[in-house]
């Protein structure tokens, strides 16, 4: 008898082939699962980053638009000389004829519309889903109103200037005759601020439902989850 290895039976050979096939199948499929998971995680990360960018753009547009409206309200919009007339005859004016009219005199509602925009910036971060959509619609309406009011005065300030208290005081009991009327760039800037505010509100109304809520670390202590130490500090039993 020779001392060689015992012959391999067909069943053992088949079992080894089956084992090899199973290992091969595992070798070919196992690397794919982590890759698919990494791809889906990367796609979710890109989507979340895109939503954060949208929210940042909307907040910046609302903040900048509201700031422009509020800053231009206090600026001079119209310079005019006022003459009082009675029955088409000039009479002496009761005050100096030169008048500089600001945006708050020509359009008193603009300040309130700008404040709505500023409040909307805070509300965008504090609300979520349907509440954020409502905030976006309100900011959109405030921006449209500001743009329309400022744009109308920029195009034709005569009627608005005649209706101001300053002009009426310069021509008491008479008709105010406005002469040498000159406009500044302030009403156009206010209209641009309104357009920017409306654009930010529109973006919030369309996309705000998909944005994440305010991070827990920015919430008030009563609103965010507490750990055991915070519960003890408040006098609660965490157990």
Care to describe what's here?
- Mean pLDDT is 76; it is low at 11-17, 24-30, 92-96 and 215-220.
- This protein is an alpha+beta fold.
- A hairpin with a 2-residue loop joins β1 (76-86) and β2 (89-91).
- α2 (32-73) runs antiparallel to α8.
- The chain contains 9 helices and 4 strands; from the N terminus they run ααβββαααααβαα.
- The termini are far apart.
- Strands 1, 2, 3 and 4 form a 4-stranded antiparallel β-sheet that branches.
- The protein has helices at residues 10-29, 32-73, 103-106, 109-126, 130-155, 158-162, 165-170, 186-207, 228-233; strands spanning 76-86, 89-91, 98-102, 175-183.
- It has a domain at 55-82 and 96-212.
- This is Trp biosynthesis associated, transmembrane protein, Oprn/Chp.
- Keywords: Membrane, Transmembrane, Transmembrane helix.
- Residues 15-26 have a biased composition (Basic and acidic residues).
